[in-house]
Amino acid sequence: MTKLAPQTELPRYDNPPVVETVVGVQFRPIPGFTNAHLGAFWQALGQQGWPLVADMPQLPRQEERFSPEGQWGRRIQLQLTQDPSARVQMRNSEGNRMVQLQNGRLHLNWLGKGGDKYPQYDRVRSDFQTCLNRLLQFVDDQGLGTVEPDQWEVTYVNHIPQSTVWNSPADWSFFKPLNAVPSVDGLIEAESFSGEWHFVIPDKRGRLHIKWQHAIDAEQEPAEMIRLDLTARGPVKQSADLESSILNGIDLGHETIVGSFKVLMSDPANKEWKLNDDGSS
User: Fold this and answer.
1) Which among 29, 241, 22, 23 is positioned nearest to 147, based on CA atoms?
2) From residue 48, how far is each of 42, 135, 270 by CA, in Å?
3) Which candidate, 25, 85, 98, 202, has a CA 20 to 30 Å from the CA of 154?
């Protein structure tokens, strides 16, 4: 297994394959929080700054448990409920930021699929912090009690098109955990692969989940690509300073993802994405 060395300075990529970044917090559902509060929060956030709104189904709760049941508990769960609660997505006019809120989750997405350059983590973190402060103030102003966070989450979505660091499945060794997908001369030829890896962050501070998918992007040429999702999640440490506890967890998730990405990629791949180890990220 490839081990991640302790990181004092994080790597930075000048041309990373990341097309979306999500930072968020999960909190215990607030009694009395209704769908009407979603609209009121949109007003409090500023409708002019987030004019594009859509209703979506709620995301299920996620919990990183460090027991034998937790290790093997990542099975598909069907949720059958009569609860009409929803999740609201609010996008800015440029379409490169999205705030998502439901009773139990707050997420901020940076959206770069349209070609925008990744603004670096500090900017995304700052935007999330602004939304988090607005939510904490909103819950207090509405007399709903307090926000009780229980899990932080960070996701990086990467699109790696064909003809960049790979041309065929035989080249997928640029991602070290996978190596090349084998073929048998005259019998079978490698065509595709999808898979997942799950890692514990030391001292059981959370987990890193990696998902690899060979996919088609009809909007791009060439259309074949690898979608590589890295998601770090972990419990929020309970303290009097809710904001710091949440942000510290998100910082840990970012460090885990960025540091792991560098180590798990080949040197030619890191060079393709212009790895720049200058101590910033």
Assistant:
1) 29
2) 10, 17, 40
3) 85
DSSP string, 107-153: EEEEE-TTSPPP--HHHHHHHHHHHHHHHHHHHHHTT-----EEEEE
- pLDDT tens digits for range 113-151: 777 889 999 999 999 999 999 999 999 999 999 999 999
Residue 172: phi, psi to the nearest 5?
-75, 5
Tell me: pLDDT of 1 over 70: no
CB 124 within 8 A of CB 108: yes
Q: Angle at Cα 214 formed by Cα 211 and Cα 218, nearest 5°? A: 120
d(CA 205, CA 209): 13
Q: Which residue has the tokens 């819950």?
A: 139
Q: Rounded to the nearest 10 degrees, how much is the dihedral formed by the CA atoms of 158, 161, 167, 169?
A: 40
Q: What is the CA radius of gyration of the chain?
A: 20
239 confidence band (pLDDT: 50, 70, 90):
confident
Q: Is 247:266 a contact under the CB 8 Å cutoff? A: no
